[in-house]
Amino acid sequence: MNFSDEDVYEAVKNHLPTVNEYVESHGGAIDLLGTKNGTVYIELTGTCHGCAMSLMTTKMVVQKKLRELIHPELVVINVDGTAENALPESYYTQEKPEKDEVFEEEVSIYDKIKNLFVKEKADVV
What we know:
By secondary structure, the chain is of the alpha+beta class. It has helices at residues 5-25, 54-69, 99-124, and strands spanning 28-36, 39-46, 75-78. It has 2 domains: 5-93, 2-Layer Sandwich (GMP Synthetase, Chain A, domain 3); 95-125. Helices cover 50% and strands 17% of the residues. It is globular and about 65 Å long.
């Protein structure tokens, strides 16, 4: 595969919402951990984490769909705590915003909307 780890990561990140629909319908989610040499490392979360069918979900749903959307040689591994499915020592990933940062952004959006309504109400009075 002639794509960089960053290219593969970006492609997976862009297609993940489509692939995630099936997993979400079962009460789970897919967390993209990283990529290395054409291998995508994910973690199934929610009710899918630790499920007996997680290997089947990884290979027959996630890997199959990502191969259709990105490249037919893509390999997907669910990092599940076992030695054979572990993250390599080095891999490509992107920083995720910390929950506090996301919350602050949501609060600021809320405040903007709230201020808009307060201003409109003041203009009416």
